[in-house]
Structures are given as C-alpha cells and as structure tokens.
Specification:
Blueprint (H helix, E strand, L loop, with lengths): L1 E6 L8 E2 L5 E2 L16 E5 L5 E4 L5 H7 L7 E3 L5 H4 L6 H4 L6 E5 L1 H10 L1 H5 L8 E5 L5 E2 L2 E10 L2 E10 L2 E6 L7 H6 L5 E5 L12 H11 L3 E5 L7 H5 L6 E3 L5 E2 L2
Parallel strand pairs: 5-6, 6-7, 7-8, 12-13, 13-14, 14-15
Antiparallel strand pairs: 1-4, 1-16, 2-3, 4-5, 9-10, 10-11, 11-12
Protein name: MBL fold metallo-hydrolase
InterPro entries: Metallo-B-lactamas, RibonucZ/Hydroxyglut_hydro
Organism: Novosphingobium aureum
Length: about 260
C-alpha cells in the first residue's frame, strides 16, 4: 500500500492570494517548492491497484494531473467544507467509460449536506449520468480491498471524519480538520504505521490542530510515523522539519508514503 499527498495546505493554500506581487508566502520560503501547497487530499493505492481518494478539494483537477492519476475506484469525504468538497465536479471525467457511478462514502450529516448542494453529482441531471453513488459510512467495513474504520472528530462547532485504512499488512490513519483529541481518535490511531495529521500552525486555533496537539496525538497513539498536513503560510518546510522528532515529517504536495 502507498499513499500520495495530493494537497497539504490550508483552506487558502500557500501562497495565499495577496501580499507583494499578489502572493502572500507568510513565513514560507518561496524558493522552496515544498512550500507551495494546494488544498488537502490524499490518494491511497493497494498492491492490487485499487485507488481510494479522500476528499475532492478545490484544486483536485490540478492535483490529479500533477500525479498522473486518471482512474479512481472510490471517494471518501471527511466533511463538507469548501476546501474539501468544492472540486467535486472534477470527478466527471473519471466517470467516463465506466459502466456505473463511482462509489462514495461519508458520515450521515456530510451525506445530507453533499446531496443538498451537489444533487446532480449523485442523481444525474438533464441526461447526464450519476457521477457518484453516495452511501453512509455506518455499515461499511471493506472497500476495494481496504479495511475501513472511522470516527467523528470535533472541528470547532462542526465535525469531521477521521479514517483508518488497513491493506497489504499496513495501516494509514488520516485525521485532518479537528480541534481537540478524543479517546475514540486515539483508539482509531493506535499503533498505526502512518498517521497523517492536521497541523495548521504552531499556536492553538479554534477549529484546527496545532503543532503540540498533533505531536502529542502521534506519541499517545503509538503511531510508527507521523506526517503533518493542512499547513498554513506560517509553517515553512525547512524550519519546521528541523524542529520535529525523527519519526515525524512535514507533508508536501506529491509526497509518496509507503508504510
């Protein structure tokens, strides 16, 4: 199994619009390619070739082209915030040539909100086929050869879904967009090979994890390795890499992880 970090940035990406010459890099070195971050998403791939996409961010088309991805088998959504779902229309070309829609999964409230906002994706419209068959996560245990576990996480006043995927003798947990750590989250990540974890900035934030919280979750859960993602413009790649433990890495767009 391997996972590709398609995007590693916060909701505005890095650089943020604005600043000198229209690009606000904050504390990030603009000459370091790994500081250029699109909105967060990952792609998992099994040894058998099955591919699972987590989230459809605003930058999805560019991410799939950059990583030469022209086929996926299923999509999971963490929640319905714009930076995690507003690239959903980019799934249309991935539906071409298929006998049926792609498989999609999310928690019940996220299912309701996605159906409300993107009805044509899940029901077809004006002669266009259904792109995704969307189902609730509750009864899902296996998908495309991956064992799937999940838990709901506090995300300020909202919630986000954290996932664990086991396949080919390895495990990867993906926990992004959370503002506090629960017992269920720790249990989900217990002894995982790789924990990809929300880490917006160094200072605490009302809706996201910060550096100390992310590192503490990695340690408490016993994760073999941790990868920090959903990074804002204050998190320079080289500076952050120099101050974290050896078993922790800073995510960057296009990063490939093999447990």
């Amino acid at each position: 199994m391997k996972v590709t970090i398609l995007g590693s940035g916060t909701s505005t990406g890095v650089p943020r619009l604005g600043g000198e010459n229209g690009a606000d890099w904050g504390k990030c070195d603009p000459n370091e390619p790994r500081n250029r971050r699109t909105r967060v998403s990952i792609l998992l791939e099994s040894e058998a070739g099955s591919r699972i996409l987590v989230d459809t961010p605003t930058d999805l088309r560019a991410q799939l082209l950059a990583n030469d991805i022209h086929r996926i088998d299923a999509i999971f959504w963490t929640h319905d915030h714009a930076d995690h779902c507003h690239g959903i229309d980019d799934l249309r070309p991935l539906r071409y040539g298929r006998a049926g829609p792609l498989s999609g999964f999310a928690a019940s409230e996220t299912v309701r909100r996605l159906r409300q906002r993107f009805g044509y994706v899940f029901a077809g419209q004006h002669g266009y086929p259904t792109l995704v068959s969307l189902d609730n996560l509750d009864n899902l245990r296996l998908c495309e050869g991956f064992r799937v576990e999940h838990t709901q996480m506090p995300h300020g006043p909202a919630q986000s879904t954290g996932f664990r995927f086991d396949c080919d003798g390895a495990s990867i947990c993906y926990l992004t967009d959370f503002s506090e750590v629960t017992r269920d989250m720790i249990e989900l990540c217990e002894d995982t090979d790789v924990l990809i974890v929300d880490c917006l900035r160094r200072e605490p934030h009302p809706t996201h994890s910060h550096l100390a919280m992310a590192l503490d979750l990695a340690k408490t859960s016993g994760a073999g390795r941790a990868v920090l993602t959903h990074l804002d413009k204050s998190m320079d790649y080289a500076t952050l890499s120099a101050e974290i433990p050896d078993n922790v890495a800073v995510a960057y767009d296009g990063m490939v992880i093999e447990p």
